[in-house]
Amino acid sequence: PLVLGIESSCDETSVGIVRGEQLLANEVASSMELHARFGGVVPEVASRAHLEAIGPTLRRAVETADIDLSELDAVAVTAGPGLMGSLVVGLAAAKTLAAVLGKPLYGLNHLVGHVAVDLLDHPAGEPARPLARPTLALLVSGGHTQLLTVGDITGDVAEIGTTIDDAAGEAYDKVARLLGLPYPGGPVIDEAAQGGDPEAIRFPRGLTAPHDMARHRFDYSFSGLKTAVARWVETRRLEGGEIPVADVAASFQEAVADVITAKAVDAARHHGIEHMIIGGGVAANSRLRGLLGERTAAAGIELRRPRPGLCTDNGAMIAVLGAQVVKAGLEPSGLGIGADSGLPVGTVVVRD
Ligand code: ATP
Ligand code: MG
Ligand code: FE
């Protein structure tokens, strides 16, 4: 099926077009630069930027895909989770398109889109590798840090672990800020860490002590790590010493990558799952990719790492999830659906 997907849950306005598992277009406009001086995404600023970007982005996607909108089989859109004021812009655009064209509308779960996108990670014209079942999905971004078990992408998805405070990307952004590095912090810390010693400072691995493991074995926590980095930097400043930015960055990055990968592999083993997929902006992190590769290989787990451009928020991930849902014969959502900022991962297709 030919499906157009709209994504606007956070700071990317994106429209993707797929034919089944073939990627035809994936246009992304990000308002990240507008948020730089605040050190994080500002919801009001993001929703206004979505309003300005949605029209041009849609037009570019249709031109790139070289299709006529009347050929579409369905319109898919992120219905949640995400920022309310951002979600409603994409949803309004999708509803309008579906109504004007007389096409079915599917309101979909953003997190499940991050998993479905793997179907697009193959050379153009070649068939897609089907998603392995079951798969453990590790989603790490500015807004999420989650472990999901995925039996069937169109309906059997469950959360088995999540962060109890900050998301991994948020921790990167906050630590960058206290080191005086620009936003977004992920890529700059990754870069700075290349010249540092990851064992210079032993930062805490959240929720790994025995009493925490009893209740939060597969959950994450990064606020204690952020505080530990802040305290270390402050102490060094009070002592009048230079801050070894590369060593702090490398040691922080090591703590994040270590705890994320250890818990993900533990979860896969515990659930008897032999396949893992990673998604979200932090999946671009070099140490995380490297360490996860080593640890999954040692545990006999097949790891899929979609290319970075497909890991960050994009419309094609929603379009390809829409195509799977259409193929599975699921009923459209209908034009009455609303955005749900806290949409649970168990709901793949939203109903009104
Ligand atoms: P959502 O959480 O809804 O998916 P988002 O916009 O916060 O939305 P993404 O766009 O997927 O998430 O990712 C952005 C985050 O990824 C930022 O926090 C950024 O610092 C982080 N990031 C990007 N590149 C890297 C990297 N190389 N290493 C670590 N973090 C990175
Ligand atoms: Mg983003
Ligand atoms: Fe996302």
Description:
This protein is globular. The strands form two sheets. A five-stranded mixed β-sheet has the order 3-2-1-4-5, sandwiched between helices. The two termini are 24 Å apart. The protein is built from twelve helices and ten strands. It has 352 residues and is an alpha/beta fold. The structure holds adenosine-5'-triphosphate, magnesium ion and fe (iii) ion (FE).
Q: In oligomeric terms, what are we looking at?
A: single chain
Number of helices: 12
Q: Give the CA-CA distance, first to last residue.
A: 24 Å
Uncertain segments: none
Given the helix and strand composition, which structural class is it? alpha/beta
How much of the sequence is in beta strands?
Answer: 15-25%
- Mean pLDDT across the residues is 96
What are the bound molecules?
adenosine-5'-triphosphate, magnesium ion, fe (iii) ion
Number of strands: 10
Side by side, the strands of the main sheet go 3-2-1-4-5
Q: Percent range for helical residues?
A: 40-55%
Indicate the radius of gyration in whole angstroms: 20 Å
Task: Tell me the series of helices and strands, N- to C-terminal.
Answer: EEEHHEHEHEEEHHHHHEHEHH
Outline: globular
What does the largest sheet look like? 5 strands, mixed
